[in-house]
Design a protein that fits this description.
Chain lengths: ~230, ~230
DNA sequence: TCATGTATAATTGTATACAATAAAACATCT
DNA sequence: AGATGTTTTATTGTATACAATTATACATGA
């Protein structure tokens, strides 16, 4: 089990607070709540059938995950992401994903490598069919396997958080079938470099993969989406 | 004002919760609480003269800052940092500090550059005198100026968090006068590269600076401190 | 009409009471 | 003595009451 899963379990998904946290997190990431929308404690509580206490505690966590911002005595607002933020995130990810791929080359287990291979082959099928939903799922899984395989919980935590952050933007910039195919080919190359034990190449390809993903976003109108927002 | 400061103010230092949060954070970082020590809600509350509610909310935030770990229905425990964690942090920091220095070269203001220069010259004095306390303060400031100057709040947030994390270890690995002098010389080189507008060199030197800092820690017995802990 | 002040309502902040869970102490049996 | 089961205690989880703060609606005057 990856420490990603562990982290979310430690967050106690069976307590009311944990349920509120997970639910709000999902709703924010899926775009149910608009950016800058205010979240009212009682409204959320009533919707989920709980009192304000667990809601408030969930808010504190969501704030530090960067999903909402709490202004004292005022309220909780869904965090806005600017185009500049997206650019910075991909810049940081390109470096860290490269680092992760390098470490994964040295620490990956047989099982993980097999799952990577399976992932790539399965994704090739869905990519050719244009099954975007499955592609998103497989893409997430591919990267999380690497996060787990790098054997660094510090790095894994960072990458998981960024990956989640980026999921919000994916909802807005539509991914094309062409990019799906290209992306999976990049996954295959990374997987093969790792399988061959070539850490340098794995790092280079993973970094490149991020840059390509970002450039694709820009091409698909990333800046159009955010053009009304301040560029900080 | 750097967004570091902003962040901590948003965390509402005048509310009871904010005071509890800041106080506990400081106490954990300063080493008042041992690693793996359990923090009891009522005990903390009584010590600070507040009820459990603000304490609990502060706990949730401390958990996501990685300073404590909360186990549902059990308790809150001060997070342990292993030698492997320290190694990983420095590996990540070496990359991100380099990135930051590169961006800072392009975005730094006149005022910030001047403060960097002043910092380096003042630190040279304190380094020669062996004033370790002032050195720590100046070192913190030097890096935070760069975090601010890179003009990326995503990157700044990351680096600030890591920098804080590392502060806990600094309490344990004593810094020598020699390292203080060497470190400040590295700061000077970075500053000069930025002043000269040489982004490549600034990045290279900042990365090197982190690697040197880490190697110095290892030399000063980093692994001895943590030898009793599991290496994950 | 607009600005200003005041009263009202809505919302967050904190304390506290009670419920649920886990830990500890104790008793009992073999 | 040691293992096991039960009671007691301590601690966390949640709901709710009240206080403090902020936002809104309204009234008043220029």
């Amino acid at each position: 089990m990856s420490s990603y899963d562990v982290k979310k379990e430690v967050t106690d998904k069976y307590s009311l607070r944990g349920r509120v946290f997970n639910r709000l997190r999902e709703d924010i990431l899926s775009g149910k709540y608009e950016e800058h929308e205010e979240l009212k404690e009682v409204a959320i509580g009533e919707e989920l059938g709980v009192s304000r206490t667990p809601v408030r505690e969930a808010f504190r966590q969501l704030e530090l995950e960067g999903l909402i911002q709490i202004i004292p005595n005022k309220g909780a607002y869904v965090t806005g992401i600017t185009a500049k933020d997206v650019k910075d995130i991909y810049m940081i990810r390109s470096s860290l994903e490269g680092m992760c791929a390098r470490l994964a080359t040295e620490n990956i287990t047989e099982e993980q490598l097999e799952e990577l291979e399976e992932n790539v082959y399965l994704a090739a099928f869905h990519a050719s069919k244009g099954h975007m939903e499955q592609m998103t799922e497989l893409d997430n899984r591919f990267h999380h396997i690497l996060y787990d395989a790098c054997n660094s919980k510090m790095l894994e935590r960072l990458l998981v958080d960024f990956h989640q952050y980026v999921a919000r933007i994916r909802q807005k910039t539509l991914s094309t079938k062409e990019r799906g195919i290209a992306s999976n080919n990049e996954h295959r190359q990374i997987m093969e470099a790792i399988k061959a034990g070539n850490a340098d190449e794995a790092e280079r390809l993973a970094t490149l993969h991020m840059n390509n993903a970002y450039n694709n976003m820009v091409k698909n109108g990333l800046y159009d989406i955010y053009k009304n927002e301040e560029q900080e």
